[in-house]
Design goal:
Shape: elongated
Number of strands: 27
Number of helices: 3
Helix content: 10-25%
Order of helices and strands: HHEEEEEEEEEEEEEEEEEEEEEEEEEEEH
Radius of gyration: 30 Å
């Protein structure tokens, strides 16, 4: 009997040790992670859809990513429809054989989360053939590792505004970004290859750290504003095809409206609050003042007619 107890005790100790080691090697958040192993195709969604780490509100065309993890051997990781908004929450990862994230049209990315993309060919692929479509990265932190292009767009505009974007490409003759119209307009942008545009490239008010084996910027029309640049530690007054560029934004940032969006200056919010305060005050004090005026007029009329009236 004692022998059985000793063996049972030893078995329990062994099992406890194994479970403890598993907890050390595989943290609870990894064990609990739901990894999606196939393409998440929101581009064809016609109703609300929900899965591990994502929630598509079809009526509002809003996709919320909250600790999404896609790891697939399919060509695409995540496909998005035209005219939608992506809200980033938590830490999100997408890994796919060829294209990490594909946008069929205009898409706005915002939120306080992160998005890490790993793709065999293109990190963010703008598949739209419409030059009026626009991709805007307004908020969030982005990390892209890709074989050929971090971002590729033959027609649609691509704009990065903030917060951070880090692109690493590995193939020969690859580029961090290749697009028709490209705008780097804020935040911090880091890349190990060039940013190229077949038409217009605007670099304004953005922190930069680009190292390439060819000119860091290439475009038919290149505009650089509000960026103090250096190359090899020396100041660069005007860009002349340098392969390595470090830049610091010199733009004075104007807070945008929390009520009306990024296209409206922040001071409009204060004006609205002031108007609202005046309106509330008028609603509270207006009737009282009106009543007092009427009362005074009544007393004056009664006094003229010889009646005794009370004094205020």
């Amino acid at each position: 009997m004692n022998m059985i107890r000793r063996k049972l005790t030893a078995l329990i100790l062994v099992l406890c040790t194994v479970f403890t080691l598993c907890a050390v090697v595989l943290p609870a958040d990894v064990l609990a992670a739901n990894i999606i192993t196939k393409t998440v195709n929101i581009a064809i969604a016609n109703k609300n859809e929900r899965g591990p780490g994502y929630d598509w509100a079809n009526r509002y065309d809003v996709l919320t990513l909250d600790n999404l993890h896609i790891d697939t051997t399919d060509p695409y990781g995540l496909r998005l429809p035209d005219n939608c908004t992506v809200v980033l929450k938590g830490d999100n990862t997408i890994k796919a054989a060829k294209y990490g994230l594909a946008c069929s049209g205009t898409v706005v990315f915002k939120g306080t989360g992160t998005l890490t993309i790993e793709a065999g060919d293109v990190g963010i692929y703008l598949v739209s053939q419409d030059s009026t479509h626009k991709i805007r990265l307004i908020d969030g932190k982005y990390t892209i590792k890709a074989g050929t292009y971090g971002v590729y767009s033959e027609y649609a505009d691509f704009s990065f505004v903030g917060e951070t974007m880090n692109i690493e490409v590995t193939g020969e003759n690859s580029a961090a970004i290749l697009g028709r119209r490209v705008n780097l307009m804020g935040g911090t942008f880091t890349a190990n290859s060039s940013v190229e545009s077949t038409h217009e490239l605007a670099v304004e008010g953005v922190n930069l750290d680009i190292t390439s084996d060819r000119p860091a910027f290439s475009a038919k029309i290149l505009s650089i504003k509000d960026v103090a640049m250096t190359s090899g530690g020396a100041s660069v007054e005007e860009y002349n095809g340098e392969t390595s560029i470090v830049g610091k934004s010199t733009a004075k940032r104007v807070r945008t409206s929390a009520v009306f969006g990024e296209s409206v200056p922040g001071f409009v919010d204060y004006i609205c609050l002031a108007v609202l305060a005046v309106g509330v005050a008028a609603g509270i004090f207006g009737p009282a003042l009106h009543h007092k005026k009427k009362k005074k007029e009544l007393y004056e009329r009664l006094a003229r007619e010889g009646y005794d009236v009370p004094k205020d």
